[in-house]
Amino acid sequence: MTPGPTAFEADVVQALAVRWLPLLGDDDFVCSPAGLWLALGAVASGARGRTAEELRELLGADGGAAAEAVTGAGRRLGATEGVALATGVWSTMPVLDAFRRGLPDVRFGVLPGAAWFALPDEVFGATDGMSLGEIPDAQDELDAWVRESTGGRIQRLPLRLDGSEDLVLVNALALKGSWLAAFPAHLTHDEPFTDGYGDTRPVPTMRQRIPAAWVWYVGGVAVVELPCEGDAGARVRFLLGPEGAGPAEVLPAAWAGPGAREGLVADSAELLLPRFTLRTRADVHDHLPALGVRRALSRDEADFLGLSAADLFLSKVVQEAMVEVAEEGVEAAAVTAVTMTRGAAPLHHKVVERIAFDRPFGVAVMDTTGEVPLFTGWRQSAPTT
């Protein structure tokens, strides 16, 4: 059996999530800290000099150590039942053999069509008989890879390729899990939900009785864990903070250790949870300076000579993620695209506690150990489905 993530892997993904969440705002969102860490970690394995130092401070590793960490973490996270993980690199130029060897689970290919846009104008002047339709379409190929890797949950690459890219690295992370105890569909009814703006409206709300062991508190945050089927199933945690609390305050409770938890002082809990879907496209490139990564974005200062002899820098970093929660289970997916361009025992009472997610709340999809946040999300608006 593949072991769970190491303490290092869990710590660095959690740390990245804590630093990233405040940059995502308080409106609805879903993201994949694990997907972003894996994508940037693969890039960091080819970084050198001060560029590597910046990435190491954010990711916990660079160079060969980053390649080893990404490979090991990917294999261990993939051991969570229902999780599919894939990474691909497409390039118009040679990639160093050492970089390829360091990432044995990554698919490497040629970026079709993009090389045409790098040709000098005089070459196009000699090809008047060639239609643009004959140029291989990189967008179609990568979109198809994204659909296949996410089981159709994400239909296309979260950015449009314009032909200026010299290298595109894409990480895809997908999950489909069935609840260990499904919500009875006949108990789903409209219940009031008050959104972050104070407006109340009825939303479809699922209901079931759950064991006390599936509920705990971290500070003022209620954490409800719904396990998925299987010996290595994912653990999905829903988080309800104090009124007015935002995602950056609430979501880290999802991975707080046992020492920070207070158990439920009841025999069981009556759970009311809206049925909902979240989907977000985040321009992570804009967030990286606030995360301490600047040189990697600079045409003049980036150093990725461990990846290629070309002078590459990060030109775009975009992530699209989705999570869908329903009576039968949970589905989630994230695609992270990086383009590079040259240049104590509680008292026991016989009571049932009612926990109603009837105001803004968080969701975190954890790996089977409950330590690595595969997906985190925040629902501020009233769900409509």
Describe the structure.
This protein has 385 residues and is α+β, with helices and mostly antiparallel strands. It has two domains: 7-178 and 278-341, Antithrombin, Chain I, domain 2; 185-276 and 346-379, Alpha-1-antitrypsin, domain 1. It contains eight helices and 17 strands. The strands form three sheets. The protein has a seven-stranded antiparallel beta sheet with strand order 1-17-16-9-8-7-10. The two termini are 38 Å apart.
Give the topology, please.
Elements: H1 7-20, E1 29-31, H2 33-44, H3 49-59, H4 63-77, E2 83-91, H5 97-102, E3 107-110, H6 121-125, H7 138-149, E4 167-178, E5 189-194, E6 200-211, E7 215-218, E8 221-227, E9 235-240, H8 247-250, E10 262-263, E11 268-274, E12 276-283, E13 313-325, E14 329-341, E15 352-356, E16 361-366, E17 373-379
Parallel strand pairs: 2-3, 11-15
Antiparallel strand pairs: 1-17, 2-4, 4-14, 5-6, 6-11, 7-8, 7-10, 8-9, 9-16, 12-13, 13-14, 16-17
